[in-house]
Amino acid sequence: MPYLRSATRSTIRFALAGTSLLALSLTAFAQDAAQSTTASDGTTTLETLTVTGGSGGVITADGYVGTSSATGAKTDTPFLQTPQSISSVTEQQLKDRNPQTLLDTVAYTPGARVGGYGFDPRFDSFTVRGFDVTYTGVFRDNLRQPGASSSLFKTEPYGLEGVSILRGPSSALYGASGAGGLFNLITKRPTEEPLHELQLQYGTDNRYQGQFDFSGPINETDPLYYRMTGLLRSSDTEQVSVPDDRAYIAPAFTWKPDEDTKLTILGEYSRTKTGGSAAYYNDPLTGKVTDIFAGNPDFNDSVQTQARVGYEFEHRLNDVFTFRQNMRVSTLNIDTDWAFAYGPNAVDPTLLDSSAGTFDERMTAITIDNQLEAKFDTGALDHTLLVGIDYTKLRFRSLNGYGYTPPLDTSNPTKGRPTDPIAFSERVVQDQWQLGTYLQDQIRYDAWTLTAGGRYDWVSTDTDTTTLATGAVDAVSQKDKAFSGRIGLTYETDFGLAPYISYSNAFSPNAGVNKETSQPFKPTESQQEEIGVKYLLPNSNTLITAALFNIDQKNSLYYEVVDLPTGPANIQVQRGKVRSRGFEIEANTSLDNGLSLVASYTYTDIKITEGPADTVGNSVSSVPRHMASLWADYTLPEDGPGAGLGFGAGVRFLGSSYGNDQNTMRNSSRALFDAAAHYDFAAIDKKYEGLRLQVNATNVFDRRDAVCSAGFCYRDQGRAVIGSLKYSW
């Protein structure tokens, strides 16, 4: 991505030092590996090796039940020893539910409020424990995945092998993260055993998709493994001029010269085409959302390209020390035209006046995380000590233009209205540097585990806003620094029960500019007290977790409809203080009888404690107090009459919520039902082994109720049915 400004000299020295260390280490390790695997006759023999550790947060799971990952502590830690609410979406859950978006992927996890903005394929926006995590809570392979304005990385669920979820403030290790927690998206990695998969899909709204996933050793002699995952999709959606087209390719390679060393390279490129606006018209006279598309089919293109490449390097130096270095460079470009009908025309009320605009945003992020882990004993105490330093460089550039498009004719709302190109009127360039250093010690004594950690962050943000017509530049510089910490205590009984208590906080700088004030956003800060219990049932592949929490946050980012000089716009604003209190319970199981199940219930009471006078003491909009979900999949016995056949069913309940922070409008409660059916053709004859037919349906009863957030109303996404034919060998 162009426009990447050079870092400071000290930053360059830091980055080069890490790169040099990696290069020297790889050279030495390669020489050692060659000596250890080459026999006297010149032939080379290799064993299939597995190196485990903290890189990426990879989940250890059995079916639907995740039991450990590196997300909760940056070291591979059992969930029972993690003093914070943690759960996972496993690979088997992804296969059974076949999610098409990140929101579909996390829809059955406790505390996650998806669908708050109704149907909108442009962004994966959602909240956890009442807090928006869209910009600060989505991580990729244990590294921050930043976002600003409309520049949000799109997630292709087919490229994931799981999602590891850590709820609550988590800056003690991760730096920039929000109060709701973090969702660690785990990229598919090379496998040691050969894997080959081809799949065709067809679904609602003329959805055509082909995808593949190949992995395994590159040859029989070298310790090299590969994975290549990709898809191509052409699809309409329920909204006119809002396609959902995507091309996606993700190569990955792993080099494991010995049992102590591993290097994995992860890449991705995707191009997604959708609409610049997906909103339905909100009638200002009635205050209700209509079925009229608020955009302009002739001025509604949005194309996003994104790419990333990075590596995860790990080397065990000896029985005590392990060094890791994870790095990623990500780029994103989104080019969009949009239109928005906002009110009746003064002369002809059957026409709706419409504003329009165009923007071109580019974002580049470089993230590097260096870790040194030490495992040792001091008397009766077992230590896992982690020390690290990480660095993130973000450059965001935005060109914006505003204007008008011909009025919308309500008698023919899907008719296009030719619109002249809109010139850019403003350029925003923002550079942000973040340097953080952290220390954590997991101290284990008998059945007790004490986890204590701290981190200090330095953040520098420079923002230049240029009015293109006059050339006037408004330059703002901002420096922030903060300490973040976490302390927690866990006790494991010999029958699988593990109560815990913890305190943590978070500090998160915000990229982007408040369009209402033309000032950069202040950092968001939060703190949490949590008490809970986890129960891994003996002799049963079942995990039950429950937690009580209290979170206080200030300088939160939210979307609100604000009157700008160019007309009303749904933009990000910062609120004063909010407090969230609640309870969560989750159960995951995969049994030998073919039944797998995930269930959860969440109670969330989130209040505005400081802000505009008409909102103080009110509930935050679009956050239900009660949410519950249940998904179950059952495969019939192999020796029975229905061998090869399986069924899945789920329900997602959302209690009522307020539609604005003034609490003057309400969203009704609703229950959305999902279903699935699948058949393995190997049950007919072994020659069909690997051939599987699957059908998934979301929102089976096609409920399209109104849902309002921050005073603007949307509609739930309607029913979608997708059939998949997969062949694997």
UniProtKB/TrEMBL annotation:
InterPro entries, per the entry: Beta-barrel_TonB, Beta-barrel_TonB_sf, Plug_dom, Plug_dom_sf, TonB-dep_rcpt-like, TonB_sidphr_rcpt
Main location: membrane
Its membrane topology: Multi-pass membrane protein
Localization: Cell outer membrane
Signal peptide per UniProt: 1-30
All copies of domain TonB-dependent receptor plug, residue ranges: 81-181
Name of this chain's protein: Ferrioxamine B receptor protein
GO cellular component, one term: cell outer membrane
Assigned keywords, A-Z: Cell outer membrane, Ion transport, Iron, Iron transport, Membrane, Receptor, Signal, TonB box, Transmembrane, Transmembrane beta strand, Transport
Family statement drawn from the similarity comment of this UniProt entry: Belongs to the TonB-dependent receptor family.
Highest taxon above the source species: Bacteria
